[in-house]
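As a warm-up, study this chain.
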Amino acid sequence: MGYIMELRKWIGKSPIIMAGACVLLSDDKNRLLLQRRTDNGLWGLPGGSLEPGESLQEVAKRELFEETGLIANSLKLFDVFSGNELYYKYPHGDEVYNVVTAYVCNDYIGTLENDMDEVIELRFFDFKEIPSEINPPDLPVIKQYLLSGQGTKPE
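Now compare it with the structure written out below.
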């Protein structure tokens, strides 16, 4: 998040538009991976902000690896989210209007490893047992994903 930190030196905590990507990763048991965040203690999706010169798909892959230790072999574009529902004020006071590109991943390798700076816990959740304590900007993404049926496997 170097680019955003540099911007913050100039503009302080004022609202900014922050582009980024997240990953809706499901395992072979059709469970969604969530991470408990260190900044607010809530559950959310692996993801983060765009750095200069990066593609959104590169952001998704980088953040997935940094935060979970998993490597995405392939990503599929799910949707792009923006608007007032994606406004967020961080616990330390920084304000953002997120523009989030969400990707679906069920083809990955690696072993789950917490990024201790950003992640308290990583856990796969059955779609019917998603916790209610969801990071606000991730909530519309998760809701739409669950409603879309993309994460469910045919029986």
